[in-house]
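Hi everyone,

Forwarding the result from last night's run.
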Amino acid sequence: MQIITVDHPRSAVLRRRAKPVGTVTPEVQRIMDEMVRVMRAAPGVGLAAPQVGIDRRIIVVEYEGKLYQLSDPELVQQEGEEWGREGCLSIPGVFCDLRRAQRVVVRGKNRRGRGVLIQAEGWLARIFQHEIDHLDGILITDRVERPEHIHRVEVAEALEVVG
């Protein structure tokens, strides 16, 4: 399993709406666990299945010592707004200043297939929005409101704050 970047031959997967998972099987759990390994190695704080070439609605997020592994996640509530700078493992060397909801509620299934509701705010809310966007074929560059909100940096520098 490797991260698919926008210049990769299989990058079309990044632009498609991912398919629902439905039942969480041992294979889905294996994918989740491997995604966590890839995310940590990158290093990143979130990863969506399309970013590793898998056309399924699966995300993993790790923030402040808490790991979330979700299938079929969806945003069911969004409140407030704030600006923040985001990077993306699939677009190395690029940061974008984006407006996102400040608080969200995410519904999905955990690795045991149980329904969960997660309330998140601030940076964690931003991470969930970013990863769920990937499941819908949306990249951070699609969310940019003005061209000057796109910043190109050296890849080594980008790795310091990738979200």
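The chain has one domain: 11-158.

Cheers,
N.
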